Amino acid sequence: MFARIMREGFVAGLIGAAAVALWFLVVDLVGGNAFFTPSMLGSAVFWGMRDPALVEVNFPTVIAYTMLHALLFTLVGIISAALATMVDKFPSTLFLIIFFFAVFEVGFYIVVATMAAPILGRLAWSNVAVGNLIAALGMGYYLWTVHPHIKEELMEHPLGETADGE
Prior knowledge:
Blueprint lengths: L1 H29 L5 H12 L11 H31 L4 H22 L1 H4 L4 H22 L1 H9 L10
């Protein structure tokens, strides 16, 4: 079971990381500066840069940040896969996934707002929210397809109640 959770988490994490990366590639291309976002975020994370005007697109920075991004999304994917496995076995725990998603999103925005506000002011919060939504939908859809029992249980018990009415 551990190997399955790790595998599913890895795949879900890569789906989420790729979704966000592709979204910001599109945003950067529309803005006329391809790979600016990962360069900016990598410069902030690795070199403490706080002024977006000083950021230059640098492919080693893009690659390094992309690796960190994929690693962090893999961690989120593993947690999500573990929760999906738990809901698959115990449907009444569905609220944990909703809670995890809400805590993750709120926590993400708090960390971003407090630790990286100067450089991230360049990113529109709506773009960040759309990227996170696309990632969540992609990861959720993947986990939904590899855990078909969840769908069956939710059709039978939409609110996660058990046969005992709990």
